[in-house]
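Checklist before submission:
- one chain only
- standard amino acids only
- sequence pasted in full

Submission:
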Amino acid sequence: MRRNVVKGRVLIIAGSDSGGGAGIQADIKAVSAMGAYAATAITAVTVQNTLGVTGVHDIPTAIIREQIEAVLSDIGADAIKIGMIGRRDAGEAILAALEPWPDLPLVVDPVLVATSGDALGGDGVAVFLRDKLIPRATVVTPNLPELAALTGSGGQSPDDIQHAAEQLLDVGAGAVLAKGGHGEDDTLTDRLFTAGGVRSFSHPKIDTTSTHGTGCTLASALAAGLAQGMALEAATERAINYVQVAIAAAPGFGGGHGPLNHLARHDGNVG
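Returned file contents:
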């Protein structure tokens, strides 16, 4: 019998989604699908399904920090993915827990609003992300509304997106993956900005309502690639392709924004 090899350890710091389509649940599925190992530190428990979020219950900051320290002191990690932090004091606890590990690749998905439109970040979270967390990031993965919230730039032209991404590079982000999923064209483009320039990834828009958790899934798949030693561009391309396959194969569950099929077969190297 062929033995599956797990390569790369990812510590995921994010909120829980009771519907299983986004948050920690999507993160674990995505990292596992990439062939990596997922450990977690939960920042909040949300009450939600495909129709929306009806409750958010914060985890005490001391417990958030203890989860992170417990994982890193024993299992360890090759990359870290941060999703929903929910509030500023949770972010501060996360930064304090990660301080002894400055060289670990860090993927920051600046979760501020759910796919349903419900807020998942309190007052001051966008400012904290921009000023404190993003400067520590290897790569930050905002969608267009998140990019606008972080920079105050609401335009969606290529020049507007580049200007906003450059603002995040200027505050210290190693790279910015500006996701194009909110675009209205038939072809959507994700753009990876680094100090060396920009790499564009274009793909046909899929006509579907099964888009819940796409941002979480992409960021976690990207983190898995970095944990496995892949170069940033290669890890980004594999993650984008994986998400496209997962959207196309979505099971159609729920009456709102449905989940992806995280176990859909894809061509990425997961060994």
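Reviewer check: The mean pLDDT is 91.
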